[in-house]
Each structure stands twice: as C-alpha cells, then as structure tokens.
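I am writing to request your help with a piece of structural work I have in hand. I am sending you one protein, given as its amino acid sequence and as whole-number tokens for its backbone shapes. Kindly check, if you would, that the fold set down in the tokens agrees with what the sequence suggests. You will find the record immediately after this paragraph:
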Amino acid sequence: MSLVSKVGRKRPRARFAMAVLYLVLTMGAITTLYPFAVMMTTGFKGPTDQNDTRLIPAFWTSNDDLLKKYRDDKYAGDMSVISSSAVGANATGQEVEKYDAFLRGLEPEYWKAGFTTAPNQVTSKLTQQYQIYLRTKYATIDDVNKAYLELNTTFSAVAPPNENLDRRGWNPTSGAKWEDYVEFKRTLPTEFRVPVRVTRIYQEWMRSNFANQFDSVPADLLGSATTFEQLTLPADGEMRAQFLREGVPIRYSEQSAETLWAAQHSTEMPIAAHESAFVAAHSSALRTEMSLRNYRYVLTYMLINGRALVNTAIFCLLVILIQLTVNPLAAYALSRYPMPATAKILLFLLATMAFPAEVAMIPSFLLLKDMHLLNTFWALVLPGAANGYMIFLLKGFFDSLPNEIFESGQLDGAREGTMLWKLALPLSKPVLGYLALLAFMGAYGSFMYAFLVAQDQRMWTLMVFIYQLQQSAPKAVMMAAVTLAAVPTLLVFLFAQRTIMKGIVLPGEK
C-alpha cells in the first residue's frame, strides 16, 4: 500500500511535496550522470580542448574552433609552424583552386606530410593512413618486418619514417621503408601536403642564430615583423648570403616549392585560405573523424591486446562461478546448522570488511608464490573465493526462508544437497543475481591485485592494459578508454536492474 492514497495525491500540499521530491531525485540523477557525460565527451576532444570542462565540444558547433583544431592537428601542435603557415588568408577562390592543383602536381621531395603524431599524442591521421597503405601492400606483418628489417608485432605498431626535409644535412635512410613511404606520399590528398618553404627554414635559422631573442635581430632585417614567424628572407645582403651558405638545405638551394609557385603566380602561397576552404567544405567529415579518433584508437588498442579481453572474460566468469559456489555453501551451512559460535563466526566475517583489500595483497602474494600459483587464473580467483559480506547476506536470506519448505523436503526424502539445489537456491535468485553483479564488478575493475599476482603480460587483464596506456596517452584518449571500459558495467546494470533491486529489497522485506 502506498504511503499517500489516490485521493490524498490530489491535494495541493501532496502535489507540491511530490513535485519537490521528483525535483530532488532529478537533480540527484543529473549530478550522477553529468560527470560520466563530461568524461565521455572529453574522449571526443583533443590536445586543444581536452582540458576545458564544456559538456559539448566547441568544434561541434563552431567552424572557427574546428579550423583551429584542424590546424593544430595538421601541424602536430607546433604553434610556431601554425603561425608561420598562416599566410595567404585573403586569397580568392580561384587562387585556392590553383594552389590545390599546384600541390597535386608537386613532387614528394618538395613537401612534407602533415598530420604527424604530436609529442603528446599516441596516434595521428597520417599514421592511420600509412598503416592502411601497408595492409594493402603486404599480406602479413611478417612480410613488413622482412622488408623493413623490423620487429613489429602488428600493423598498428608500424610508424611512418621521420622526414626532416627542411633540416640541412639530413638525408633519408635508404631502403624499402623509405621507398614505400615515398610511394605512399604520392597517394596522399592535398590536405596532407605541407610545402617545405625556404621562408620557414630562414625563420628557424634566425631563431637559432639569435638564441630565440627577437629583440636581438637587427632592425634592417625586421621589416614589419614582430615575431620570428613573420620574418621574410631578404632579397640581398650578407644575412641572405650567410643563410644560403649555412642554413638552407642543399636540395632547396636552387629550387624549392616557393620558387616553383612564384614562377607561375605573383601572389604568396594561399596556405591559410586553402585550409579554411577545405574545412568549410568538409566540416561534417572532419568533425566525425576528430570525434571518433580517440575511441577508434582505444578499440584498436584493446583488439591488438586481444589476450586482455579473453583474460578479463575468463577472470570474471571464474570469479562469479566460484563465489556463487563457495559463499552459498558456507551461508547455507551456517543457516541450517547453527552452532553456539555462529554469532562469533559472523562477527569474524564482518570484521574482514573493516580492513581495505590492499592489506591482504602482500600476504596473498607471498602465499601464492610459495604455492607456485603466480601468473595463473588460480592466483586471480582463489584469494577472493570466500567473501564475508556475501556469506553474511546469504545467511540472513536463508534464515528468512520458511522452515516449512525444508520440512516438506525432508518428508519427501530429499537430502540436504537436494534441498539446497532445488529449494534454497531457486528462491534466492534475486540475491544471488545481486551478488553475481558484485562479483563481476570486483573482478572487472580489479587492477592493482591483478597486476601484482599476474605480472606476465600474457595474463594481464583489460584494466592493467588501460593503466599501461595511461603512461603514454593524453587525457582525451584516457577518457575514451575509461568510457569504453565502463560500457560493460553500464550494460549489466541496465539489463539486470530488476534483479539488482530485488536482491537489495527482498532481504530487508523478509
């Protein structure tokens, strides 16, 4: 029977009280879900916006933020290069089309590939495209290793070679890998092509010569520049001659991307206008790719470490199976055959809850080591087979079952094991389901203990691999990893919520 009758609910005071109650419950639900929502949407972000607390990423709704994020991605977060490349922003659409055609016909030695992996990132669009190219060219990773003389475990572990075309004295390492990379570069669309500009080389050379002190640059070399990124190569003079002798790579001393462009056009390269036009024309695809990149990488990472998924599944199943075997047997024995010391036994079981699990880790480790069980599933499962809280809860539930049920079973000649299996356990399905969920949660989220007793990488669970990913991955990638790791638990809660509520409520009602 409800606390408020149907007639009483129509009264203004009752309606007001109900409204306040539902408002409080709604606010509580929001405060619970909001942190998870922020965590999930942070996984959609990247280096430029992963530290803000906005629920909706700004680049989803703003083209300006999308362009900023696109440029940061293209130039691997190098603000100096981004600033130096912001030229030709006022070019016309016709000039942008000519520049796009110019990039398509530019030979690979005159441009570098953009979208490389930034120092604080773990993957990039270029790396993903390169790995796709390798999968189409080579049948297996062994073929790649044989051609490149490397020891990669999967295609996802192969990284494109570094190219420092703008560095004087640098030459690529000859071999199959560089030859394949040049062939791969020819397949890249114009958005990936970053022309090697002598102007940019000159700016970095000046920065190095004057120890990054812009105030030390002679006034006659400044022009209208206020930063190193705005300097332009003088038409003549000693500084130009010195730069051509010492700074510019030999491969560009006679001809460069800039001279090729200047031979056909009188305006500067419309790099900024070309990028703005590309972002405007492909905004939807860019938003999708940027949003899903972290989640795609984490899923690939989990599949690469496929043993982690198998280990986690086996670990969780074994924990559920053994805890739903040991704990019901102990609780049933205490319930059906009470002893004078039963209360003390229960007190002892409850006392185990007073100590954090970390206290027992080292003794468990030493015991398992003496038994030669480390790096096995037995090491993961056995120490948690018996649980004081579960035994206490199950005993209370078994005590609440009518004694007449067991008396009728005894009259029919049923043995104690038969009554446990046929009578007690079927009536205990709600609480057993609740305890199975607790066992799953404990096993699935276990990290420290799982890593302590199973340090062999072949025995690592999913949470251990996610911890290892944390050592190198940025915040946005980790938020994506944690979100995906939370999905199984969320699904279990959604599909088993009735069982959970029955397991929580029924023992109290009994």
